[in-house]
């Protein structure tokens, strides 16, 4: 199956969804190349980036599930087809 490289940007505005967010990232862990989290203490938020190599439907499913969590905003960018 054809895969794409994507980056999901996540802004976590409340700790309420941390457990579910981590569970989802673990569930899709086979497709995750890497992730980086940065706490922005002055604003009380966390900025997370997740790099993936996965079929388009997997990337969209994860991004959609993350975006439905309370206090979580996401945006996905895709690399050009290689």
Task: Summarize the entry for a quick read.
The chain has 82 residues and is α+β, with helices and mostly antiparallel strands. The chain is built from 2 helices and 4 strands, in the order E-H-E-E-H-E.
Pick out its properties:
single chain; 82 residues; alpha+beta; four-stranded antiparallel beta sheet; 2 helices
How would you characterize the overall build of this protein?
The protein has helices at 18-27, 56-67, and strands at residues 4-12, 32-40, 45-54, 72-78. With 82 residues, it is of the alpha+beta class. It has a four-stranded antiparallel sheet, covered by helices on one side. It is globular, with a radius of gyration of 13 Å.
Order of strands side by side in the largest beta sheet?
2-3-1-4
Question: Which segments are poorly predicted (pLDDT under 50) over 5 or more consecutive residues?
Answer: none
Q: CA-to-CA gap between the ends?
A: 14 Å
Number of strands: 4
Overall body shape: globular
Give the arrangement of secondary structure elements:
Elements: E1 4-12, H1 18-27, E2 32-40, E3 45-54, H2 56-67, E4 72-78
Antiparallel strand pairs: 1-3, 1-4, 2-3
């Amino acid at each position: 199956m054809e895969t794409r490289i994507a980056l999901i940007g996540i802004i976590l505005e409340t700790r309420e969804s941390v457990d579910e967010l981590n569970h989802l990232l673990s569930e899709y862990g086979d497709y995750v190349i890497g992730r980086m989290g940065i706490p922005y203490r002055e604003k009380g938020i966390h900025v997370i980036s997740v790099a993936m190599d996965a079929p388009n439907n997997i990337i969209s499913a994860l991004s959609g599930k993350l975006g439905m969590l309370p206090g979580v905003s996401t945006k996905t960018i895709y690399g050009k087809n290689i």
